[in-house]
Amino acid sequence: MFFRSWTERAREERRRESARNAAWGLTIGAAIGAAVGLLFAPKAGKKTREDIVSRTGSAFDSIRDSIDDAKNRIEEARLQMIDTARDKGEQIWDAKQKCADAVRDVGDDSRTGGRRS
């Protein structure tokens, strides 16, 4: 049971790592392809270099924005999980209190022979 769960987790981790590597490879390949395309474009060298700098800067800005967006979504999810855990904890506490009260009532009933005062 433990071994099967461990192997399934390892297999899933390998799949995720493979997908992550493919995404990075695609991104890097696209960036290199774009840069090479610009280098061989029929423009003056200075204009081409300016284009490369401009596009690289905007690509980094886009990546930075994506990272910031991901951080914000992760923070929102973290806060939501904390709220959910707190709510569930309160529900468990309330249920525990009800159980304790019910046990106390049963004990009181057994001492009084089922009669309530």
Which tags fit this structure?
117 residues, mainly alpha
Protein topology:
Blueprint: H1 2-39, H2 45-112
Structure, explained:
This protein has 117 residues and is mostly helical. The protein has two helices and no strands. The protein has helices spanning 2-39, 45-112. The relative contact order is 0.04.
How far do the termini sit from each other? Answer: 55 Å
Poorly predicted sequence stretches spanning 5 or more consecutive residues: none
By secondary-structure content and strand pairing, the structural class works out as mainly alpha
Order of helices and strands: HH
Write a compact overview of the structure shown.
The chain is 91% helix and 0% strand. By secondary structure, the protein is an all-alpha fold. The two termini are 55 Å apart.
